[in-house]
Specification:
The chain has 16 helices and 22 strands. The protein has about 500 residues and is of the alpha/beta class. It folds into three domains: about 160 residues, Alpha-D-Glucose-1,6-Bisphosphate, subunit A, domain 3 (Alpha-D-Glucose-1,6-Bisphosphate, Chain A, domain 3, 3-Layer(aba) Sandwich), CATH 3.40.120.10; about 230 residues, Alpha-D-Glucose-1,6-Bisphosphate, subunit A, domain 3 (Alpha-D-Glucose-1,6-Bisphosphate, Chain A, domain 3); about 110 residues, TATA-Binding Protein, CATH 3.30.310. The strands form four sheets. Strands 1, 2, 3, 4, 5, 6, 7 and 8 form an eight-stranded mixed β-sheet that branches.
Length: about 500
């Protein structure tokens, strides 16, 4: 079992920690010693998994643009080299590209140094094998090895560290995908006359404008924040962030572009903007991705996270003719559920979170923001030939008039049992009140209300990692969200261990 020190580094299926000074009250805990122990533990775990000695293993290592990346990369590479591993030092790279080294370069393992969209002082490690990213229990096993000081034996002959420019090959594969998908008369320049703005947020995604779109003939003027800068001086590199999305929307409008795309720091998530500067994000992004997936899989099943809208459910099932399987939050949860359904013989081509994590079966169920945006660009180019635009596809999607997320802290130190008790008690209360509880919900409690009580729904759930209960509300009428919140607040205010101040502040505002 993990002690408190080592438990702090587990964030879902990734290692995360404080890697740089600069934020008051946050001391560095992701030290070189910790990195070396976790890397060594991963190698021991990988040797056991593959049945191969360290000297017979090649492991790729990449990183995003964070200011601690060089220090951590050096520690990772040195630890692997000391044990006899052949290390491919890929430098600045996207997270999905590091998985692809296990496919294209036949690496039994890969390590990406990233903390996704988290602040500049954070960093972490994400591990891959040919089967994909690690599961939560596999990461726990690695952290337990690190906690117990289990390290690989030093090799008589150290391994090698070879600088490797895999991102060039990865970009070329995306260019080929666009060429084959668009089938333009000028095959090598399928995006000629197409104006696309890219916002990389000073993360690792600048390559997409310069090495994918521009060589295909796209006009990329107006693209912004392509240069890597681990302090993220312009906005948080996160498609879910309102400031980031407002920035790319404005860039599209100012440049008169046909399309905009935005990535998070390590490019495993993406979002888009149409020619009017309107977001294609969250439910709208899921709708477009579902259209793409169901083109070749009519009647297929789309797995999403739990907070997708009722309008999206109708769009997938009635407009697109697919099936909507609304599952749990957590990108690994939706991916694992899609994999499970396929193993059971259910045609499931897409797993996608409203956060922008989208994994297509055709792409190894890898959540890859660049791949998703590439497929969206192909679709946009195909539609342009027909005189249509992406907005035409989204016209049948019914969108909420209001939506709100309120995060309620759990005050109990053992927060999970407290949160579970709140959900259990709320479920009983909802039944007493005659509220309509969703029968196909997989986490927390989801309740729908008619026009007289808010005309919408709420979902209260327990956070995947933190002592928080996120409350999502969506309504089809002005004032409906507050009306539902007030009904819910009447119950939650009496729940022991739950801080309802954020909900009450919203109700009183």
């Amino acid at each position: 079992m993990l002690d408190q020190f080592w438990k702090q580094f587990k964030s879902g299926t990734d290692v995360r920690g404080v890697a740089s000074e600069g934020v008051s009250g946050e001391s560095v805990n992701l030290t070189d010693e910790v990195i070396e122990k976790i890397t060594g533990a991963f190698l021991v775990w990988l040797q056991k998994k593959t049945g191969r000695p360290a000297c017979d293993l090649t492991i790729a290592v990449g990183h995003d643009s964070r200011i601690s990346a060089s220090r951590i990369s050096s520690a990772v590479c040195a630890t692997l080299q000391k044990a006899g591993v052949s290390v491919l030092d890929c430098g600045l790279a996207s997270t999905p590209s590091m998985f692809m080294t296990t496919v294209d370069l036949h690496c039994p393992g890969a390590v990406q140094i990233t903390a996704s969209h988290h602040p500049f002082n954070r960093n972490g490690l994400k591990f891959f094998t040919r089967e994909g990213g690690l599961e939560g229990d596999e990461l726990v096993a690695i952290l337990e090895l690190a906690q117990n000081g289990v390290m690989p034996e030093p090799a008589g002959t150290p391994g090698t560290v070879t600088p490797t420019d895999y991102m060039t090959d990865y970009a070329a594969s995306l260019r080929d995908l666009i060429k084959k998908g668009v089938q333009a008369d000028d095959y090598d320049h399928p995006l000629s006359g197409f104006h696309i703005v890219v916002d990389a947020g000073n993360g690792a995604g600048g390559f997409y404008a310069q090495n994918v779109l521009a060589p295909l003939g796209a006009d990329i003027t107006g693209s912004q924040f392509l240069e890597p800068d681990g302090m993220f001086p312009n906005h948080i590199p996160n498609p879910e962030n309102a400031q980031a999305m407002a920035s790319i929307c404005q860039a599209v409008k100012q440049s008169g572009a046909d399309l905009g795309v935005i990535f998070d720091t390590d490019v495993d998530r993406g979002g888009a903007v149409d020619e009017n500067g309107e977001e294609i994000n969250r439910n709208r992004l899921v709708a477009v991705a579902s259209y793409i997936a169901l083109q070749q899989n009519p009647g297929g099943t789309i797995v999403t996270d739990s907070i997708t809208s009722d309008g999206l459910h109708t769009y997938i099932e009635e407009t697109l003719g697919g099936h909507h399987h609304r599952f749990r939050r957590g990108y690994k949860n939706v991916i694992d559920e899609a994999v499970r359904l396929n193993k059971e013989g259910i045609n499931c081509p897409l797993a996608i979170e409203t956060s922008g994590h989208a994994a297509l079966r055709e792409n190894y169920f890898l959540d890859d923001g660049a791949y998703l945006c590439t497929r969206i660009i192909i679709l946009a180019a195909q539609l342009r030939r027909e005189g249509k635009k992406l907005g035409d596809l989204l016209r049948p999607l019914k969108e909420a008039v209001e939506e709100k997320e309120i995060r309620l802290p759990i005050l109990e130190s053992d927060f999970r049992p407290c949160g579970e008790a709140v959900i259990e008690n709320l479920t009983a209360y909802a039944k007493e009140q005659g509220w309509q509880i969703a029968p196909d919900n997989y986490e927390g409690i989801r309740v729908s209300f008619g026009p007289e009580n808010g005309d919408g729904w709420f979902l209260l759930r327990l956070s995947v990692h933190d002592p928080i209960m996120p409350l999502n509300l969506e309504s089809n009428q002005p004032g409906g969200v507050k009306k539902m919140a007030a009904q819910l607040g009447a119950f939650l205010s009496g729940c022991q261990g739950l801080d309802c101040a954020p909900l009450q502040s919203f109700i009183d505002a």
